[in-house]
Amino acid sequence: AVGEEKEFSSEAFGPRTDERVVEVPRDRLPEDAAPGVELELQGPQGPMRAVLQSLGEETAMLDFNHPLAGVPTSIWMRVQKIEAAPALEVETTSPGDGRTFPKPGDKLTMHYTRTL
Fold it and tell me: Which of 44, 56, 83, 94 is the most buried (most CB within 10 A)?
């Protein structure tokens, strides 16, 4: 209902985990890398962000945890107004054959356009 208020508290960015802190060979890092610097590295599924924790002679420790992981987060909200949901429009650019469907692991391309 309009005016309704709610507060949510959680670790919205997940817990900090030791498994996301990894040791890598130093020669895989940029020459000017220094502890505390945020690096963007190419991962198997695209770019990944890590913070360089420490730098040794031959290895370095990278922290792939989200910067806010483990930090308690509180969100407060109030319903300002309620509107009817817009009609859903589906446009099929290349129809399937009705017999075969994607399987887990298949790569799909979908385009979703909506104004938030």
Answer: 56
